[in-house]
UniProtKB/TrEMBL annotation:
Signal peptide feature range: 1-32
SUPFAM superfamilies referenced in this protein's UniProt entry, alphabetically: Glycoside hydrolase/deacetylase (SSF88713)
Coiled coil: none
Protein name (Swiss-Prot/TrEMBL): Polysaccharide deacetylase family protein
UniProtKB keywords: Signal
Residue intervals of the NodB homology domain: 76-257
Organism: Micromonospora solifontis
Residues spanning the membrane: none
Length: 269
């Protein structure tokens, strides 16, 4: 009798476990399906998927947008880039390290943060480069053409006011591209810059040296390396390991350049 009760309880437990797992899977599937349905209903003409606006002449600057992940070159050059700033705790740490080692970098600034923390970057970006990373780090790929342009224009103006430099590069949040993003970038005469290698802070908790070794080993000539000067405590692993990253890459014969310097001397992949 006891054995029978035990078997019944085990079967009941297994059924409950299966139901819970099935429910989680159904929930994830339902979320994905809801997003898919919502995206299908987004307008094409003038909406996020459209790279044209209306049926009159397209006011798109030079009329060309280039998208770059990295470059093909035999030279050992690498471009350091930092997204999402400026922020008080993080950005000065990055700028201090770069100044100590004489390394230039490209900062993709969030316009809202650039306006709020202008003092952090004003007069400190000599030798560096700034790019546009949207006004408030919302997903530009879900905006229509008007909204994407207004967002980037607002951010552009805030970055100019904070740094005195007009950005010519755009990195959309999360690297999400859509037709409206391309259209807005063309109107603003931006070049779209993504990345060919990303810092992987989550794989090296509390191990800045280990993270630095991983990045140094993975860099190839013409790499555009993505880092962040905003985020959670976890991301500090990369920033604390930045000196080791710089010295390790220099030991491999690498020279640091801004993204624009990289693009001027090489052929786009």
């Amino acid at each position: 009798m006891a054995d029978g009760v035990g078997r019944w309880r085990r079967r009941a437990l297994l059924r409950r476990t299966a139901l819970l797992a099935g429910g989680a899977a159904l929930g994830a599937a339902a979320t994905a399906e809801t997003t898919w349905i919502a995206d299908r209903r987004l307008p094409l003409g003038g909406g996020p998927a459209s790279a044209t606006l209306g049926n009159r002449h397209q006011q798109v600057g030079a009329g060309v947008v280039q998208v770059t992940w990295g470059v093909r070159t035999d030279e050992r050059v690498v471009a350091l880039t930092f997204d999402d700033g400026p922020r008080p705790r993080w950005t000065p740490m990055v700028l201090d390290t770069l100044a100590r080692y004489g390394v230039p970098a490209t900062f993709f600034l969030v316009g809202e943060r650039a306006r709020q923390h202008a003092a952090l970057v004003r007069d400190r970006l000599a030798g560096h480069e700034v790019g546009n990373h949207s006004w408030a780090h919302h997903d530009l790929a879900r905006m229509d053409a008007h909204a994407a342009y207004d967002d980037l224009r607002r951010s552009h103006d805030a970055i100019v006011a904070a740094t005195g430099v007009a950005p010519r590069l755009l990195r959309p949040p999360w690297g999400h591209l859509g037709g409206a993003v391309l259209h807005a970038a063309a109107r603003l005469d931006y070049r779209l810059v993504l990345w060919s290698l990303q810092m992987v802070e989550g794989e090296f908790p509390h191990d800045p040296a280990g993270h630095a070794r991983r990045i140094v080993a993975d860099v190839q000539p013409g790499t555009i390396l993505l880092g962040h000067d905003v985020g959670t405590e976890q991301r500090l692993v990369a920033l604390r390991g930045l000196p080791d990253m710089i010295t390790g890459l220099r030991a491999r014969g690498y020279t640091f350049v801004t993204v624009s310097q990289l693009l001027r001397r090489t052929v786009v992949v």
